[in-house]
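Late entry, written up from scratch paper. The run itself happened at the end of the previous shift, but nothing got recorded in the book at the time, so transcribing now.
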Amino acid sequence: MNAISAVSARPAPGTPLLFRWRKWDGGAHWVHECVYLGSDRWGDWVGQRVGDRSVRPGRDIPAPQPNVTLIPPEGDWVFTTNAPPHRTHIYIDLAWDVTWIDGEPGGIDMDLDVVQRVGADVYIEDRDEWDEHRVAYGYPLDIVDRLERVAVDLETRVRNREAPFDETTAQQWLDRLAANGDPRNP
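Output as recorded:
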């Protein structure tokens, strides 16, 4: 099983950092400007303030609302929740090898996502991309089986609003993000 390195030091809360995603073949994917918020029993939390950028080849998107992201120690998913009025409430990236290197998180985006849009049911997104990439990139079968089970489990946990996918857990971190202020605009 992959796991986040317990040895890697975490930055101080409030420290700006980059979360770097890559694809299975090592190619560049999303890079998110974030601020480290701290940790709890679920893992480490980072946040994006309004205007923090998410960039990938061909796209550059400033955050329209604040969001917080949980990086759990399992290393095979990353959970983001967006503040209202964003239309995507919950977005969980299935991942591999999520780890901290030199004080910054990163991992391999594995295509499948568990999503809940505002006013809609929970669903697993990008199954077509998953099917295409698992062949094109040659994902190992044991990883395919594991992540498919993890996706279904996460879908159920989100639908049941189990912590940390409940409103209270993420709201605490959104509140902490708001309390940090924006050092870019003193």
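The chain is about 25% helix and 40% strand.
(Scratch paper discarded after transcription.)
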